[in-house]
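The records we work with from here on pair a chain with its fold. The integers have meaning only within a learned vocabulary of local backbone shapes. A complete example follows; check for yourself that the lines match position by position.

:::
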Amino acid sequence: MEEIKATNKELGQPTVRVGGKVMAGSLIVSHSLTHMYGNGFYVIIPQIFQQLGLTYTLVGLMDSSRWLATGLSTLVGGFFVDMFQHRRGLLLGATLILLGLGYVLVSLAPTYWLIIAALVFTAVGGSLWHPIALGLLSQRFPKQRGFVISLHRASGSVGDTISPPLVGFLLGTSILSAALFGVQLFSITGLGLDWRRVLQLGMPLTLVFGIALWFFLWNVGGPKSNPKSLLSNLKSQATTLKKAFKGHGLIVLMTVSALRGMGDRALILFLGLYLSQELKMSTAAQGLYYGLLTLPAIATGPILGAVSDRIGRKPVIVLVLLMSAIFPPLLVQVGGSIYLAIIIGIFGLFLYAVNSLVQAAAMDMAEGLHLEGTLIGLLWGGNALFGAFSPFLVGWLADIFGLKIGFYYASAIFLLAGLLSLRLPRIIAVRA
């Protein structure tokens, strides 16, 4: 195994780090599990909506609460990740375990408000993943940053793609059947489990992966912080961060990320409700459409990331955002026809590509400042905080104007983000 050694100046001892391939493989594989929870839950939300007799406003408030908690905890957590770099392996393992435990608590919550409380716990527990993981990948692969971060995003898309159909299968009672001339040829049936039971099934997997991450990455490296100097370290980070914000590039980038989060949160939440309430689709069909939306990103994410490594982040970010603005209104114009599947599939080529590009661009802007965790925390925190307002707002609007309003809202937000991204500097990645 390739080993990279860094000197701990305070202790005068070497810090042994695992090989880059082992670290990247561990992070990329585990990342898919975090997304399985998040995207699979969107198939469960219509079940909660019907079982508890909620309004769209209350559904939006439920999703807004978890994203608000994610944003606040990520903003704060990013700073401390950079201060406790020697504990990153342990923190990654703990993040996975707390994420699984949080959804178990959601399954046990008997009332709407306790479900919200459990979702807040879940959000806080899982909030440190991206500042730690993306910071590690950015440090280890500076010359392939766009590709590697996009590969990390693609692994999330794998989880996004697998989970909704799987959840649909677990929840549904009838998945697929075919007959010819009145003779039943085959039939595939789901398990028909309660949504609470489905949420509990993932805990053993997160426990195993969490322990494995700690085992493989316990010595991932980084200097050990002196507790006596934590305050001075925090002041030093704040000073360095101020330097990173000189000029308008990073401010524009964070605003673009925040706007993208606003559009994304509204669209993804209300897609499932639109399919179930307006088009009367089964749980299984909802899961398949969610999976179809994320499937193309498995391939396009790394491809676009590699392209941005060569030509710069800006033109790719602009293209992806402007293309994303085209498709949401089309989704509600075609109804349940075959065109819905086609539009969702094409939409998926662009929707999930921009986050990794924005993250790579932020790392480019802050090259050499050692603020990877801080900046990813700010990006994800800002994205989540601004995005947290959308589900509640769109839920309120949907109670008045209908569910279709959410898709037009998302389109307008994506368009605004795309136009604003034209003001980004031409960011060129670090190359060999």
About this structure: Residues 1-16, 178-186 have pLDDT under 50 and may be disordered. The longest strand covers residues 183-188. The two ends are 23 Å apart (CA to CA).
